[in-house]
Write a structure and sequence with these properties.
This protein has eleven helices and 20 strands. The protein has helices at residues 2-9, 36-48, 102-111, 127-133, 178-182, 216-226, 254-263, 271-277, 300-311, 335-344, 372-382, and strands at 14-15, 21-22, 25-31, 52-56, 72-77, 85-88, 93-97, 114-115, 150-156, 162-166, 191-198, 200-201, 205-213, 234-239, 244-252, 267-269, 289-294, 316-320, 325-329, 348-353. The two termini are 25 Å apart. The structure holds flavin-adenine dinucleotide.
């Protein structure tokens, strides 16, 4: 089989690492296609050989999702798909190959006075990986999501066909909205080869405020009261062990930000502390499982209670009150109980697991959602041979 990949991408771009493991499966070959045509040919070859394929960008979010439902797999590395990175400041769009790094994208956007919703990211993270993982971000709020700025995608399907959805303009919706379907699908429906994303004007000013509280519940109450006084673009509540801190981020025109800062919770502070918070959303430390619970923003206190009931007083690490998310750490033996309690409360659960933590004792997405059968039938239409990261998505799809 290795020979077949070598014929497609060249000998120099195929490796057969003797003992590599990816998402719980043995890596039979590591293949690095240079473009969408080679990538599609690799998928066709893998389909014909019934070999599971896991697309990998920077490899920084592989801890999200279930273990692969296959003994062995091909690790399809997309870092060479980075030739096209065109930013058009006048049109306000960027057309990017999937392997373009987020660091390059944000540097090039900044040079044009623009920003994207990919935000600041981990070293090595790619456009395709960020779209496929659609992770929680410090800057997220209920109406600021990456998918809303994703205008179009090009994907390679399991059978080797390359197709496009969406386009280069915002109002381009005909038929089913496949663009948002691919966003967050962890490479289980198709491999993203290119994306068109919206560029936004960089805010005139970004500023931060921080307030300290004696407890997490006091901090959450203060956030709820604060909502009527100021409108931060993002808010993060951090559990500090001996209390909690509320961080607010304000972005926009200079004068507006100044007004907001005057009404904000706590005192002005610089960006360094905010940047340090990003590590809480990075890969979990060795052997650790991170749990992300989601519900309506008004229910974040309930989410914190669920985490504390399962993991004890220090279980909550971070709360994003504007998103309705609480992030924490819970030991493996308490995870099945947390899944049941979360389901009973009508909340969602996502696990992000360090590779050394082994397979999780529950589905990485908690209890099966009502739409599971619909999701299964979509997977069957897109990937009938179960070649694309089989088992990794909700309910082992
Ligand atoms: C708005 C935003 C803000 C963020 N903020 C933070 C932060 O504060 N702190 C932090 O640590 N991180 C943050 N991140 C996450 C960080 O950027 C991730 O590391 C990144 O999203 C994952 O990229 P990757 O290339 O490493 O993906 P990988 O880990 O390589 O892949 C992630 C998943 O997508 C699949 N995949 C990869 N490439 C493709 C493809 N081309 N087609 C289909 N499936 C694919 C993989 O199989 C895997 O399931 C943020 C991300 C975003 C989008």
């Amino acid at each position: 089989m290795g020979d077949r990949f070598e014929a497609i991408v060249g000998e120099a771009h195929v490796e057969r690492p003797p003992s590599a493991v990816l998402c719980g499966a043995r890596v039979e070959a590591l293949v690095r296609p240079a473009n969408a045509v080679e990538l599609a040919a690799c998928l066709r070859a893998a389909s014909e050989s019934h070999l599971a394929v896991v697309p990998v960008g920077g490899g920084t979010k592989l801890g999200i999702g279930n273990p692969l439902a296959a003994q062995s797999c091909v690790r399809l590395e997309l870092g060479r798909l980075c030739e096209r990175a065109e930013l058009d400041a006048n049109e306000g769009i960027a057309e990017l190959d999937a392997g373009v790094s987020l660091a390059e994208l944000s540097a090039r956007a900044a040079a044009l006075g623009k920003v994207t919703r990919f935000g600041a990211a981990r070293a090595g993270a790619t456009v395709g990986g960020a779209i496929a993982a659609d992770p929680l971000a410090l800057e997220s709020s209920s109406d600021v999501r990456l998918r809303d700025d994703l205008l179009g995608v090009e994907v390679a399907l399991a059978n080797g066909d390359v197709t496009r959805a969406g386009g280069r303009v915002v109002k381009n919706v005909t038929g089913f909205d496949l663009v948002r379907l691919y966003c967050g699908s962890l490479g289980t429906l198709a491999v993203i080869t290119r994306a068109v994303v919206r560029l936004r004007a960089a805010p005139e000013r970004v500023a931060f405020a921080r307030a300290r509280f004696a407890s997490l519940s006091e901090a959450l109450t203060a956030c709820a009261r604060q909502a009527v006084k100021s409108t931060p673009s993002a808010m993060v509540v951090v559990s500090t062990g001996d209390g909690a801190e509320v961080w607010s981020r304000f972005a926009g025109r200079d004068a507006g930000v100044e007004t907001q800062l005057a009404r904000a919770l706590g005192d002005r502070t610089d960006a360094a502390g905010w940047e340090a918070l990003r590590s809480e959303l990075g890969p979990p430390p060795r052997g650790v499982s991170r749990v992300q619970l989601g519900a309506r923003p008004s229910d974040v206190s309930l989410l914190c209670r669920l985490l504390e009931q399962a993991g004890g007083a220090g279980a909550v690490r971070l709360v994003l009150p504007l998103v309705g998310s609480a992030v924490g750490r819970v030991a493996d033996d308490a995870l099945p109980g947390l899944v049941t309690a979360t389901d009973a409360a009508g909340a969602s659960l996502t696990l992000e697991r360090d590779a050394h933590a082994g397979p999780p004792p529950c589905d990485a997405f908690g209890a099966p959602p009502p739409a599971l059968e619909l999701m299964r039938s979509l997977k069957a239409r897109f990937d009938p041979g179960r070649v694309l990261a089989p088992g990794r998505f909700v309910g082992g799809i």
